[in-house]
Design goal:
66% helix; SRF-like; nucleus; single chain; TF_MADSbox; protein dimerization activity; two-stranded antiparallel ribbon
Length: 205
């Protein structure tokens, strides 16, 4: 008969949980004993039941095994701390080197400390400056174009407002458009008042 796969979660039924604990505990103690005998290994096992009852197994002396474990754990902790400290020192040295390199580069970009530079180093510094200037000019031109576009938009807005104001002055508020030509009625009146020397008859002497 094939056994089903046991789901790894807490058994809710108290009786089933106690039965399972007893079976698994005995099996674990048996495996610890077999491992110590077959492989000549120093094995120590400590089990506390849900109610706090102690079950233990030791192939030699439990206290000596625990003491040995604590000493080994302490040594491992010290070794881990030493390795961590070495890594920290290495990281600090790497950071100091990077800071020193950045400081040298900064001084060279400012034109300082160039006496000890080789031709290749000076060429690299020059190339870096040219790249920086190219980026700076591109950014500056972009900002200038944006400013010009804003000014043009403002100019268009002002011209539109001026046009609307002129239309309101000429056509709004009940006023007639201003014209430089006189009314046609005045033209007719002036034409009727004009004197002429033309007459019928012989010319005057």
């Amino acid at each position: 008969m094939v056994r089903g796969k046991t789901q790894m979660k807490r058994i809710e039924n108290d009786t089933s949980r106690q039965v399972t604990f007893s079976k698994r505990r005995n099996g674990l103690l048996k495996k610890a004993f077999e491992l110590s005998v077959l492989c000549d290994a120093e094995v120590a096992l400590i089990i506390f039941s849900p109610r706090g009852k102690l079950y233990e197994f030791s192939s030699s002396s439990l206290s000596k095994t625990i003491e040995k474990y604590q000493k080994r754990a302490k040594d491992m902790g010290a070794k881990t701390a030493e390795i961590s400290m070495q890594h920290s020192k290495g990281d600090t040295l790497d950071m100091e080197k990077k800071i020193e390199h950045f400081e040298i580069s900064r001084r060279r970009l400012l034109g300082e400390g160039l006496d000890s530079c080789s031709v290749e180093e000076l060429q690299q510094t020059e190339n870096q400056l040219e790249r920086s200037l190219t980026k700076i000019r591109a950014r500056k031109n972009h900002l200038i174009r944006e400013h010009i576009e804003r000014l043009k938009a403002e100019e268009r807005k002002l011209l539109e407002e001026k046009r609307k104001l002129l239309q309101e002055i000429e056509c709004g508020k009940g006023l007639t458009p201003v014209s430089s030509e006189p009314p046609r009625e005045e033209i007719r009146a002036e034409s009727m008042d004009v004197e002429t020397e033309l007459f019928i008859g012989p010319p005057k002497r």
